[in-house]
Write a structure and sequence with these properties.
Elements lengths: L2 H4 L3 E5 L8 H12 L3 E5 L5 E2 L2 E2 L13 E4 L6 H11 L3 E4 L9 H16 L3 E3 L5 E4 L4 E4 L7 E8 L2 H14 L3 E6 L8 H9 L6 E6 L5 H11 L5 E5 L4 H11 L6 H11 L2 E3 L2 H13 L7 E6 L2 H13 L3 E2 L4 H10 L10 E2 L6 H12 L6 E6 L7 H14 L4 E5 L6 H9 L8 H19 L12 H13 L4 E2 L4 H6 L7 E4 L2 H11 L3 E6 L12 E5 L2 H18 L7 E6 L5 E10 L3 E8 L3 H5 L2 E5 L4 H9 L4 H5 L9 H17 L3 E11 L6 E3 L2 E5 L3
Parallel strand pairs: 1-2, 1-5, 5-6, 6-7, 10-11, 10-12, 12-13, 13-14, 15-16, 15-17, 15-18, 18-19
Antiparallel strand pairs: 3-4, 8-9, 8-11, 20-30, 21-24, 22-23, 22-24, 25-26, 25-28, 26-27, 28-29, 28-30
Amino acid sequence: MLEKLFEPTSVAVIGASRTKGKVGRAVLDNLIESYNGEIIPINPKADEILGLRCYPTILDAPYAAELAVVVLPAAMVPDALEKCGLAGVSNVVVISAGFKESGIEGAKLERRCADIVREHGMRMVGPNCLGIIDTGSGLNASFAASMAKKGNIAMMSQSGAICTSTLDWADSRGVGFSKFISLGNKADLSENDFLLEMADDDNTSVIAAYLEGVKDGPKFMEIAREVSHKKPIIVVKSGRTAVGSRAVSSHTGTLAGSDEAYNAAFAQSGVMRADSVEQMLDYIRAFSSQPVPDGKNIAIVTNAGGLGILTADACHYAGLSLSSFDESTIDRLREKLSPAANLYNPVDVLGDAPSDIYGYALETILDDPNVDGIIVLTSPQAMTDVKNIAEVVAEKAVASKKPILCSFVGGTRIEEGEDILDQNHIPNFAFPERAVSSMAALCNYGVIKKRVHLESEKIDADKEAVSSILKKALSENRHTLGLESFDILKAYGIPIVGTSNVKTLQEAIDACEEMGYPVVMKVLSADISHKTDVGGVRIGLENRDDVERAYHTMMSDVRRYMPNAVISGVQIQKMVTGGKEVIIGMNRDVQFGPLLMFGLGGTYVEVLKDVSFSVAPIGKDISRKMVSSIKTYPILTGVRGESSSDINSIVDTLCKVSQLVMDFPEILEFEINPLMVLPEGQGCVAMDIRLTLGSE
């Protein structure tokens, strides 16, 4: 799809410079050093640069370049792009800065560039980027300090500095790349385009990215879900906090979405999120050199008991299991290991173990069908032959179909061994916890590859009824709906509690008498979000006297707390007992759309903040995972002899809410709190609803 971007037969450098230290000169130097195609410098003030004939404009060149790299002041870029289009250039990389990251005028200039590219059918990387590298074609169309080593990792980044730092780190570790892409402001080509390109690239086995935001969230999820079945995708997403998000906006002009939405979107689409650049680099080393395990049963081989225990603890917290060895494995280990050695997992070969004992232990454990991967630990004690141990480990790892990760812990005394591991592409981590984290990533990807995506089922709903309610509210300039909008839930088959909306005390008494006691009374007001906080809820009303007393005290309390609130009456509900309160909510995220939330309801959600998120639309598989992933899930399954709640009814309700908010994009926020979940087999009932509307 983007072959001519990464494998052009000719490259023009618009803004090529004779001056050492200028970006236009650095790009030209990099191309001359590694690229075998035609190089066309463009500079109206020079006849030749570095022995290459120079042209005033790209229109003056004898033939059209397949790729043009633009290194000019921002104001000159639109004219250069126009000339590229007229010259028949297919792709452009705009390195120049001064666009949307610099403010309103820069944003206008960037939109103009994007329009020109679109009009001429070109594709553009950037602006405000470092450039691109393709080691397969030898293309280094960037101002990076050096060419990347050849390898199987494709990396893209919205930060040019992270690109250069990563390249330098990789050079010191012998880690190679297939492609390196500085995304910049993503005015045209974005992470979505490059994910598709890398998915079909034979030279790429692992995809990594540093992102400050995604350009099209739903499309990203669709593409990533497909690509992650072929190749692992590892992403560092910055801007997790409010402070970080502001920094993002000032850096590349990216509007950052909520971190919960990114976590949910990544999890649903098979993207593995790294918490730091260091962790991303750890992961790509593991994925670029090690096979993906079949399961999560891990063996630990160590010459130091303390390191083994730390690693075992880390495995537990990372969701990995320590393998239980076959008896035959224990017998074989007993044959050659010291009588003082620990033969069970973790296997402690002891501090004086020579390299051949390490090799024997590894070979024996690799043969065990209960072992999916091995973490090898080495502490440099006085009698430890680090060099020979590294050679033996490398020999076994290269021949193994199971992943082997190492943590040779130390400094100068392990350097020689670490060099041997690096030369054989065996990842070594400074501390065991990093090795465990990388092994967990390998194991988790094994699960992702096997995952089957189930489309959400369509629900038979009365969309016309909901549309009528929403249109009426908007025509009356009402953007917040509460208890009076229960009919929206009924239209989607969501059970609601017996309800009556009334305006006066007498109407309230009549409704209670007809409904039957006990009842709940709630204030009706679009201005009040949290009724309990202002005394707007009364429960357990058993008779007429209770109703009268509750009505008067509630009105008094509400007016004292919120004197300006418009009160339209009260709602009488049949009191439901014997259930658990949960909350189902939705907030429309800027990048991914409807972000669904689930947790324990009532006041618990504010205190515990124990909630799960998913991006709509969702089916029953994701819905069930949302329910089971909260820490307080055991409360719903029944504790200390309590009966289990009707979890299937929660799952169904989540799916119905998912379709509702997909069907009506004008719903910006939505909340059922509480949804009363009854014992298993008895269903659930919505007790309260609140939603916020945007424009149609």
